[in-house]
Amino acid sequence: MNPENPLIVQSNSAVLLEVNNPLFAEARNAVSQFAHLDKSPEYIHTYSITPLSLWNAAALGLSADDVEERLARYSKYPLPRNVVDDIKELMGRFGKLVLESFEGGLVLRAEDSNMIRQLSRHPQMAPLAGAFVDGNRLSVPPQNRGLIKQVLIGLGYPAHDVAGYVDGDSYNVDIRSRMLTGGEFTIREYQRQAAESFIGNAGAPGGSGVVVLPCGAGKTVVGIYAMSLLKRRTLILVTNVTAAHQWKREIMDKTGLRDDEIGEYSGDSKEIKPITLATYQILTYRKSRNDDFLHYEIFNSQNWGLIIYDEVHLLPAPVFKFTADIQARRRLGLTATLIREDGHENDVFTLIGPKKFDVPWKDLERQGWIATAKCVEIRVDLPPAEKMQYLSLTPRQQIRQAYENPDKLRVAREIVKAHSGDNILIIGQYITQLEMFAKELEVPLITGTTNNKRRDELYKQFRDGEIKVLILSKVGNFAIDLPDANVAIQISGSFGSRQEEAQRLGRILRPKKRGEQAVFYSIVTRESKELEFAMNRQLFLTEQGYSYDIRYSEVD
User: Fold this and answer.
1) In what order do the strands lie in the sheet with 445-446?
2) Which of 27, 269, 312, 553 has the fewest CB atoms nearer than 10 Å to its CB?
């Protein structure tokens, strides 16, 4: 306790952090490992300590005493006793129930025989569990491994799954010392730590979990290194065909695998090879809402030893269902942010695995592994005629009008002119708006309907410097390999999506050849719902240490 400290811990488990305090950055890094950022206005940031944030911290090896010590170290005032008690209670629940192997099957074990007996009678648990092996162990059919974990976390008792995994078929994956594209290749220390944290060891077995790294930090390399450590047949799930092609290029560039050893399973191709890249779209395809998913069997078509979920924060809901059925396979999730706006964070934790590795974005920026970046929000008024009409519209119409503010074109044109010679991405939500920008600025546009061949051509032209400005719809939220992009202009988005904000900034975070700073612009309509969304969108990046320079642009 020290009045000069930056934290105030409140009895409702909210944590207030003073921005203009010398210990701000140090305290933010300490708190962010076990609390979620909720609000980030200029002077006070608000965090919340939640069951899931504490269970992820426990999975990373933090204890309740560690969390209490960090809060006490940076707190102005004594910690509320109820908050300390809640932290101990919640973190103490992680590991009270253990899923483990037993005589060729599974059991759910608890030290407290009364607790497991009561849980076994719960209406959601009873259909999934079998008979008692003894007073402390309840048999679990292997096919219910994922389902029972979902039920338990819903009841507030996350199961610690140590039941192990099938090995899968062996397949040799060796890392190259020199890349096919030229130059030496070495695994960075944080990439090595991330992969090894996932693999685990005798003292702390791994095999399922999520690695959180910023865009541009080499999450693909983490996956490739994990493949080389396990040396097993691997299924890699990706967001789209462009991402599949990028993964294939990276695998061939950095391992000894040949083209004919890597298959693509998508709308364009149906190859299953020892290393197979499948898109989320093909996995979730069905002829009608009531039909079966036609390509679900890819999960069982081979004896996979590893399944990698790229951009796990974008995982479609049906894939969670598939994943619940394959809990005996090793599962690695890769993402820039664990935030999901659909509330499926619990499913990521239970079905893919807990967070195994995380590193602050600014730490990697300081070390030179990702580009330094500046965030600028430009606020612009609606034209007078539209401003008068705005208040008479429905909420949905107001949102659309604010996002498609015609004066954003003028601002975007000024930014493009100011960054003449830079490599610029313009990213937005509404196709009609993007088409208008493409026509007025005379630059190419990529949307979801652009065929894959045309996408690859335009991306290559951008990488080769033949195109300096490229407009992207929501396809720009996904993994695209445009390392020289150093300016992004966001003109509209998916409401208040924090994950989208992080993904879009990530498009310009790859280290630059000349070491120049990347700039992320957001053009936002003043006095509108869009401004409220913008404040929410910035939360995640603020937690990572980024601040937004607010500027104003007047209507001509």
Assistant:
1) 445-446, 469-472, 424-427, 487-490, 518-525, 373-380, 548-553
2) 269
Residues near 39 by Cβ (< 8 Å), separated by ≥ 6? 45, 46, 539
Are 364 and 336 contacting, i.e. CB atoms less than 8 angstroms apart?
Answer: no
Q: Where are the beta strands (DSSP E) in 382-444?
A: 424-427
Contacts of 517 (CB under 8 A, 6+ apart): 371, 372, 373, 374, 486
Whether the CB-CB separation of 67 and 35 falls below 8 Å is answered with no
Model pLDDT for residues 42-68, shown as the tens digit of each residue: 788 899 999 999 999 998 889 999 999
Q: Positive or negative CA dihedral for 275, 296, 280, 221?
A: negative
Pairing of strands 373-380, 330-335: unpaired
Report which secondary-structure segment, H or E, holds 118: helix 113-120
Starting at the earlier edge strand, list the strands of the sheet with 275-279: 262-265, 275-279, 234-238, 306-309, 330-335, 208-212, 355-358
10-residue mean pLDDT profile of the chain (556 residues): values are 93 95 92 86 87 91 95 96 97 94 92 93 94 94 94 94 93 95 93 94 81 91 97 95 93 96 92 95 84 84 94 87 91 88 84 89 88 94 90 90 95 96 94 96 94 90 94 82 89 84 87 84 93 85 84 77
Angle at alpha carbon of residue 335, lines to 333 and 341, rounded to 5°? 105
User: Structure tokens of 372?
Assistant: 């330094």
pTM of the model: 0.88
CA distance 383 to 120: 63
HSE (side-chain half, CA atoms, 13 Å) at 30:
19
The SS3 assignment for 376 reads: strand
